[in-house]
């Protein structure tokens, strides 16, 4: 028999890359992770890991077992959702991770709606950068993530997530009000080739958007906080590329649309595959979709 709890350890190793990081995600010691993986190999009768000293990687058998582990996890989520539906008193808490502007635009209005229409359902919010929320979701630290993707970014973890589109927004260029182009109705990004930029940190997908849109930008300051970025722009420290709804309207800075086809940020809610029919999650997802801009014209039944 294969213990599904050990499959979870294998998934964590595949997600995080090292025994130590997998242990941190699962709140286990590295030795406990190694013991669980050794026991799983014995149960499978196959070598699942290649070991070079302290480094490990998945063998083809290990990669195959990760696929099965994802399927088992989805079925367990469906089982929990089915059981919850049998006892749907609609009382409980949903843990949600979201980036700041989506909290303002969607999450806070959804909480207000739930307080009026489903007072037994509550949301616990974590403010995290968009690219950090999916790992929290897959590790079981939250139940629902609001995150983002960009026109040029590939989808990942498709077999493990169910996605619900919320809204789409373009990136605008944010300029100091004293900038030579600040009064333009549109700006060609090539006109900013000689400007210094304020950008998110490496690893943040919003930085990747800038690197693709602008050839070899000279980056002077870095921050993952768009309010801080906008404040630095207002101080005359450079220009920035910011999602439209993340622009905070700081005095001294102005957001100007880009000419042509701008980069886009697609915002969506995600849950672990198999859990979307859980009564609490269905209720919260419905409130989020109602709060999303333009929801009245959207296909409410669509999942991506």
TrEMBL record:
PANTHER family (UniProt xref): LYSR SUBSTRATE-BINDING (PTHR30346:SF29), TRANSCRIPTIONAL DUAL REGULATOR HCAR-RELATED (PTHR30346)
Occurrences of domain HTH lysR-type (ranges): 2-59
Keyword annotations: DNA-binding, Transcription, Transcription regulation
A family per Pfam: HTH_1
Protein name stated in the entry: LysR family transcriptional regulator
Database matches in InterPro entries: LysR_HTH_N, LysR_subst-bd, WH-like_DNA-bd_sf, WH_DNA-bd_sf
Family listed: Belongs to the LysR transcriptional regulatory family.
């Amino acid at each position: 028999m294969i213990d599904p709890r050990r499959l979870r350890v294998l998934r964590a190793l595949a997600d995080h890359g090292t025994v130590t990081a997998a242990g941190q995600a699962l709140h286990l010691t590295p030795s406990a992770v190694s013991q669980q993986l050794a026991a799983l190999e014995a149960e499978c009768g196959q070598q699942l890991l290649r070991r070079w000293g302290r480094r490990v990687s998945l063998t083809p058998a290990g990669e195959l077992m990760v696929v099965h582990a994802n399927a088992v996890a989805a079925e367990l989520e469906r089982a929990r959702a089915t059981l919850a539906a049998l006892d749907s008193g609609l009382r409980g808490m949903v843990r949600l991770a979201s980036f700041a502007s989506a909290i303002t635009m969607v999450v806070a209005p959804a909480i207000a709606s739930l307080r009026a229409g489903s007072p037994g359902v509550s949301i616990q919010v974590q403010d995290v950068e968009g690219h950090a929320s999916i790992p929290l979701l897959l590790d079981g630290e939250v139940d629902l993530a609001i995150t983002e993707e960009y026109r040029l970014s590939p989808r990942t973890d498709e077999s493990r997530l169910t996605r619900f589109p919320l809204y789409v927004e373009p990136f605008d260029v944010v300029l100091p009000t004293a900038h030579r182009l600040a009064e333009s109705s549109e700006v060609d990004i090539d006109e900013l080739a000689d400007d210094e930029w304020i950008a998110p940190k490496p690893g943040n997908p919003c930085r990747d958007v800038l690197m693709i849109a602008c050839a070899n930008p000279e980056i002077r300051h870095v921050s993952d906080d768009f309010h801080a970025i906008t404040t630095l722009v207002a101080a005359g420290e450079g220009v920035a590329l910011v999602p439209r709804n993340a622009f905070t309207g700081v005095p001294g800075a102005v957001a100007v649309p880009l000419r042509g086809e701008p980069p886009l940020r697609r915002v969506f809610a995600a849950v672990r595959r198999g859990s979307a029919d859980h009564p609490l999650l269905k209720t919260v997802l419905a409130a989020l979709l109602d709060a999303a801009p333009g929801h009245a014209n959207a296909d409410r039944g669509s999942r991506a």
